[in-house]
Design goal:
alpha/beta, seven-stranded mixed beta sheet, two-stranded antiparallel ribbon, 12 helices, 9 strands, about 35% helix, globular, Haloacid dehalogenase, HAD-SF_hydro_IA_REG-2-like_cap, HAD_sf
Length: about 375
């Protein structure tokens, strides 16, 4: 008897009508407008702490070389790493609180530079904590601003988009950070929803009030950082809370009606973290030669010594062309219709070039390890 091959029916992914779009904060929406240790050293010098040479202090801080404030950089990194190990989650894990935690980081950073009987001024501590709670310490990426403007026009119906295929869009931010992220976003002129994961009560704002960001999910509140899937699960729970609490919940649908997409710059924390939580993921990479081309592409990228094909955009406005049917699933290859073929050997360009100065090999290794630990600060 002749055997016939079984017929395999390939099911197309179910197309959901709504989008739950979550974005990273640091290096995705905004970045420090000055190297953080340089900003610390510049402020400390003004407050009477001799942490840089007079010849350095007399110049504009923008012209400082990394060598000129290297001692502050190294001490800041060491202090941050030690405080993170001793008092995790910005001190919340041990009841310290983020304000006290950051105050201790600042004091210990400048302790080696103090004269006998000198103390770190409280005014310096307040200045530095406040600086990174608003736009004073950060620059908003131009493509991020344009993206939120376009998204508002689409979501309010004033300017329909032929490429934006979603009936409803909910926007959130998921960030490995303390509680200052919402205030930073608001200081850039964004209307940010009044709730985060620690507040599960219904919103008190008017239903008609437009929000650029519906809510923010922070590792400080959740107790877990990306790439841990629990922070992504917390975002899904917040979506459910928002839909259930909304007076217009009947028209917003349920969580199951939403495609979940996460966008960020980190391959490990953002891209693969989201995939392992069963989300769709797109990596934002502004460093390549295709920067600003407005396309979604499959990009061959170096990650942990291997070449990986990663769905990538070079600016946020390209997300309007993203199609969930191009996403296969966690651990699978990413297939993009019309994706450009990357050139073999095209590596990921470093975000910044570090001036290694006269550091020894051991010091260089330590610095690189500490800098990796500081990635969550967007430095």
């Amino acid at each position: 008897m002749q055997m016939t091959q079984p017929v395999v029916h390939l099911m197309k992914p179910r197309i959901k009508k709504n989008l739950f779009l979550c974005l990273d904060a640091f290096d995705t929406l905004y970045k420090p407008n000055r190297n953080v240790p340089a900003a610390y050293a510049f402020a400390a010098k003004r407050h009477g702490i001799e942490c840089v040479a007079e010849s350095t202090a007399s110049k504009p801080v923008e012209s400082w070389s990394r060598e000129e404030y290297e001692p502050v950089t190294m001490n800041f990194y060491r202090t941050f790493q030690r405080m993170t190990a001793e008092n995790p989650n910005y001190g919340k894990a041990k009841g310290l609180g983020e304000q006290t935690w950051w105050a201790d980081v600042i004091r210990q950073t400048f302790q080696p530079f103090l004269k006998p009987q000198q103390e770190v001024p409280s005014a310096l501590i307040s200045e530095l904590i406040s600086r990174y709670a608003s736009s004073e310490g950060y620059d908003f990426f131009p493509d991020a601003r344009l993206f939120f403007e376009q998204l508002k026009a689409i979501r309010t119906g004033s300017t329909p988009s032929p490429t934006w295929k979603w009936d409803k869009t909910v926007v959130a931010v998921i960030s490995n950070s303390d509680s200052r992220v919402p205030s930073v976003l608001s200081s850039f002129g964004l209307n940010v929803g009044p709730r985060h994961i620690a507040m599960n009560s219904p919103s008190t704002s008017e239903p008609s009030e437009y929000k650029d960001i519906d809510f923010v999910v922070l590792s400080y509140d959740v107790g877990f950082e990306k790439p841990n899937r629990l922070i992504f699960d917390a975002a899904t729970s917040m979506l459910a809370n928002m839909l259930n609490a909304s007076p217009d919940s009947a028209g917003l649908g349920s969580v199951d009606d939403y495609e979940k997409l996460y966008v960020g710059d980190s391959i490990k924390k953002d891209y693969y973290g989201a995939q392992r939580a069963n989300w769709c993921a797109v990596r934002l990479d502004r460093s390549g030669e295709d920067e600003g081309d407005g396309e979604v592409r499959l990009k061959l990228t170096n990650f942990q010594g291997q070449k990986r094909s990663i769905v990538t955009v070079s600016d946020l406005t390209a997300l309007g062309k993203w199609d969930p049917r191009d996403w296969v699933g966690p651990g699978a290859s990413m297939l993009m219709r019309g994706a450009s073929v990357p050139r073999t050997g095209e590596g990921e360009r470093k975000k910044t070039e570090r001036n290694k100065g006269e550091l020894s090999q051991g010091e260089l290794a330590e610095k690189e390890e500490l800098e990796a630990a500081m990635e969550q600060l967007g430095i």
